[in-house]
Amino acid sequence: MNRINQLFKTNPKNILSVYFCAGHPELKKTVEIIRILEKNGISMIEIGIPFSDPMADGVVIQNASTKALRNGMYLNLLFEQLQDIRQEVKIPLLMMGYLNPIMRFGFESFCRKCSECGIDGMIIPDLPFKEYREHYQSIAGKFFQILV
């Protein structure tokens, strides 16, 4: 059973999932932030992928994304930072980001790198469900049990 399903099975009423934008407030603090969140009782973490046009987000996340990009965060660096995360962190981790940077990286390559880092799932808010079902579900299914 994957970590997300296990979390909901063992603790269905008291789950706290936290989002933060990778590379914010400082470029090299991503792993440290994840460790601190887990240590302080967070149940699951959504790691935000910074994007230059986060249209579905409010001003706080827009500003965090802008700052992370200015700090130099990009997907390859994020994957480098996360490559050994599972040696320390046991709670479910999800990547949350817009479709554009994921497609630039390559959808299957992105899924593969997430899986290699121990990421449990993805949230892509601007990926229409119909498009996901028709074009991406079979690819994502090779690497994840859950795509939100």
TrEMBL record:
One of its GO terms (cellular component) is cytosol. One of its GO terms (molecular function) is tryptophan synthase activity. It catalyses: (1S,2R)-1-C-(indol-3-yl)glycerol 3-phosphate + L-serine = D-glyceraldehyde 3-phosphate + L-tryptophan + H2O. Gene3D superfamilies: Aldolase class I. It is an enzyme of class 4 (lyase). Pathway: Amino-acid biosynthesis; L-tryptophan biosynthesis; L-tryptophan from chorismate: step 5/5. Keywords: Amino-acid biosynthesis, Aromatic amino acid biosynthesis, Lyase, Tryptophan biosynthesis. Its EC number is 4.2.1.20. It holds the Pfam family Trp_syntA. Signal peptide: none annotated. NCBIfam families: trpA. Tetramer of two alpha and two beta chains. This is tryptophan synthase. It comes from termite gut metagenome.
